[in-house]
Amino acid sequence: MDGTHEKHAEGAYYLEWRESGKRRLSVGKNAGEDYALKLKKVAELNATAHGIAVSPALPTVNGKRSLAVAVADYLDEVKLTKKPKTHSAYSTSLEYFRESCAKLSLEDIERKDLLKFTAFLRDDKEQAARSVANKFENVMSFLKSQGIRGTDLKITKHDWPQYTEEEPEIYEREDVDTLFAACTEEERMWFEFFLCTGMREPELMHTYWSDLNLNHATVRVTHKPDRGWTPKAYRERETPIPQSLVDLLREWKKKRGDKPVPSFSPRRDAT
After folding, report:
1. Which terminus of the chain has a smaller tally of CB atoms within 10 A, N or C?
2. What are phi and psi of 72, to 5 degrees?
């Protein structure tokens, strides 16, 4: 200063970059170490810009746990232990949370960040009330896995997003008849199968001819390890089906043999 060298121990270095908005991070007071962190962050951003998945360059933030690293590790674990649909839901929820939250370390997250997240989903992403509640719950599950509970953040029951549980829409017989009248032969078979078995779509997608016992008029929901698919709650079950559906399936099998239906099943032994 004015030709005189001065040393200010209170000073600190910061990294600034744009990632879902402007980010600014204090990286400490060691010039050499901080410059190395800058180079790592530049390399990470360049790789991401070219579609290359890399581990975040900053595993800790001033001795605190990096939010980015925790999210990446958590999603890796979810991918290994949960179904793809669950992994996709958590990925979206946590991506939106990071987009709405400027905090870079887990320990800096507070109640206000969760309230902002709710408003961000509602106003910026225009999510329905139930979607907001689901994504909020997913983020809270992630935080709990990191040892951060709602009570730690002073989250109250009034902070959790609310939604109205709507009554399911009821279709009368004439509505169903109108639908079937507009169906092709193949579409009629699929909708009859849904109607008569009460199966969920993933269950029907993973039904093989071997799951059907047309002589006893039953269909089974079974584990399909070759596709990495398991039934809900990991429980197999058997369901009786009416003779009208048995007749449709016999006719369908006679026409197609063991060939799969392209719109649902890519494997030869699947319906």
Report:
1. N
2. -60, -45
pLDDT at position 87 is 93
Q: Which helix (H) or strand (E) holds 239?
A: strand 237-240
Tell me the backbone φ, ψ of residue 92, rounded to 5 degrees. -65, -45
* Torsion of Cα atoms, 101 then 105 then 106 then 109, to 10°: -40
Quick one: fold of 61-162?
DNA polymerase; domain 1 (1.10.150)
- The edge-to-edge listing of strands for the beta sheet with 237-240 is 212-213, 218-221, 237-240
Q: Are 212 and 249 in contact (CB under 8 A)?
A: yes
Residue 25: closest CA among 71, 60, 74: 60
Closest CA to 229 of 262, 265, 263: 265
Report phi then psi at 153, rounded to 5: -90, 0
* Residue the block writes with tokens 């190395």: 36
Q: Give me the pLDDT at residue 20, please.
A: 62
* CATH code for residues 173-256: 1.10.443.10
* Phi then psi dihedrals of residue 40, to 5 deg: -65, -40
